[in-house]
Design goal:
- The chain is mostly beta strands.
- Helices cover 4% and strands 50% of the residues.
- Strands 1, 2, 5, 6, 8, 10, 11 and 13 form an eight-stranded mixed sheet that branches. Strands 7-15-14-9-12 form a five-stranded mixed sheet. A two-stranded antiparallel ribbon has the order 3-4.
- It is globular.
């Protein structure tokens, strides 16, 4: 499914399972014919508080990206990056509905959510992780830093 930014999009929740030794490695994700670079954001509870990491992730501008948001906790956690998602292009996914007002989505306990997209123009885009009805704090927040692509 392909939808333009700002028009809404869906997100897939994935759970990896191992089968036989002969299982093939899946092909890398592709955005508009280009292989997407994987970037992971992890969420967990540390001393009873939600924490997201890394606090800063550097991404090349206008490149294909597979954003993997991994919830290692035993509770649902929300990931939000409203300005980042509003500025991205060529979003491809299926499964979850992203809240366009919050610019984020929930990730089930012990699971991974994935979004395929093209990174926006250079800039710093704030993200946060939090439990429903909670307010994010600095320990559960960070920046997706989009830098000019190398020439």
């Amino acid at each position: 499914m392909r939808l333009l930014a700002g028009a809404g999009f869906l997100l897939t929740g994935l759970a990896a399972t191992a089968t036989e030794v002969s299982a093939q490695t899946p092909s890398p994700p592709v955005v508009s014919g280009e292989v997407a670079t994987p970037v992971e954001i992890t969420m967990n509870y540390v001393n009873g508080d939600v924490q997201c990491g890394p606090p800063r992730a550097r991404l090349p501008a206008r490149d294909p990206l597979e954003l993997r948001v991994i919830n290692r906790a035993d509770r649902i956690i929300t990931f939000a990056a409203p300005k980042f998602f509003a500025a991205t292009q060529h979003i491809e996914s299926a499964g979850f509905v992203v809240d366009l007002v919050k610019g984020g989505f929930t990730v089930a306990p012990q699971s991974t959510a994935r979004v395929l997209l093209r990174t926006p123009a250079p800039g710093e885009y704030y993200f946060s992780c939090f439990e429903a009805e909670e307010i994010p704090d600095p320990q559960s927040s960070g920046f997706l830093i989009v830098v000019p692509a190398a020439r």
